[in-house]
Write the structure tokens for this entry.
Amino acid sequence: MSVDTSEVRRIAHLSRLAMNDDQARDFAGGLSDIFAFVEQLDGAAIEGVEPMAHPLDAEQRLRPDAVTEPDRREAYQAIAPAVEGGLYLVPRVIE
Amino acid sequence: MAQETLSGWVRKLQAREISSRELTQLYLDRIERLDPQLNSFITVTAEQALAQADAADARLAKGEQSPLLGVPVAQKDIFCTEGVRTSCGSRMLDPFVSPYNATVVERMNAAGAVMLGKTNMDEFAMGSSNETSFYGPVRNPWDTERVPGGSSGGSAAAVGARLVPGATGTDTGGSIRQPAAFCGITGLKPTYGRVSRYGMIAFASSLDQGGPMAATAEDCGRMLNAMAGFDERDSTSVERPEEDFTAGLEQDLKGLRIGLPTEFFGEAGLDERVRGVIDAAIEVLKGRGAEVREVGLPNSHLSVPAYYVVAPAECSSNLARFDGVRYGYRCENPEDLMDLYTRSRGEGFGDEVKRRIMVGTYVLSAGYYDAYYLKAQKVRRIIADDFRRAFEDVDVLLAPTTPELPFALGAKADPVSMYLSDIYTIAANLAGLPAMSLPAGEIDGLPVGLQLIGNYFDEARLLGVAHQYQQETDWHARVPAAFA
């Protein structure tokens, strides 16, 4: 399968990656090659095969519903790009 | 001095022939003098290392015995280290000073290891040459015009050049084994679930696994003893009784059944000279009593394509957390929230990471999920089933680690040709099996790696086979002339 520049821009938007036309053009070739490469899977004998999500087919482990983590808000906020009054700052969302 | 192995240093430290401070200083000096040629470290933590060394010396003076007490190590910069930048090789995390330690780091600290610093790597562990790092490429100590492999290229180059006796790596599709092969060292990817992923920055969570990289199999076993173990903070950590991974080192090879997967010796892309090295290694193992037979892994040719659906899918989901809000890189003057997200990510990620995020987003998007993702997961199972059948007849599998010798920087410009350099390593990740690479020869002054793949939880046996091979050969003891 081959992807063109507008398709690359569509995927970039879904991926939340800023991308202009020149960049999209640069990515189109490599992405087309990758999608063509993975088409080899089309010939696989997988009828009736259960999909494998996890190497050990493990079940989700449960734990008691108890607080185990200490409050580390200050340490976590210290590394944020912008905070104020214990809140993370982002550009105004509602005008 | 730098020829000594990690295990050798542990013994010398226990015997008080050298102090941890002296040893730490020796390696810090080597890093300062020699690393400018390699770029294998992103961050060197000299002050902290000397403080850890003093603490280790105090414990040694009290007669304490701990598996890594006083010995210098390096952490791949994918493992979170409290108070130390943890960049994952990315501009996105260049400003990130982790507020906590990965379980692997905690466990190695508790075992008395001294951390010299954080090693360079492909950005977010996505690469096979260490050329995608935000901090510049790492160079191969055997030939600085060539790549060290990736993504754990910094750890491999640092150990290969003996700038540190042991380092951690992570392996999602070959990222411990391929650079170990390229740099002439020993590296082990354990069974999925053996080593906690807590604090190990996620790339593809159903494939990622941390492991040791060092000169010898004995060193790797010793490091794995400190690294492995159940961790309730990793939901896929395996709960098993504690195990001594050095227990099988002295086991002889009489009657050991080694399988050679015919598909890994086919003509496609395998350098004849590499094949010659592997054939010679097989003779060494036969000479120690092993029996060799061919086995089939008929679906292994689908490993790389299946991986390049599954791994990007998981990556696109894992890397969604990097949004410029809570930590990491944020773009200047965002106009609105969407602009903040897309520009922070567009400027913070490099091209290979973006490519994989886009592939993953695409294969998971509405209308394509069944055609790509579900299909790849089914192929993953038939690949794992091939291994299951093979291990009914043999104890370990043996193959080349890589089809070719370390390549020149810049040689693989198109993504698919780079992906194919992991053609022999990826299948073990898809199945979740333990696998390792060890040095088995040299061609034109460049090292060649031998790969051993084991059944689930059979690390001790793998390390034993490798150790027996290393009793008979000295490839693991060779150091590139410029770093001897």
Notes: Residues 6-256 of chain B form a domain with the Amidase signature (AS) enzymes fold (CATH 3.90.1300.10). Residues 369-390 of chain B form the longest helix (22 residues). The two ends of chain B are 9 Å apart (CA to CA). Chain B touches chain A through 74 residues (CB under 8 Å).
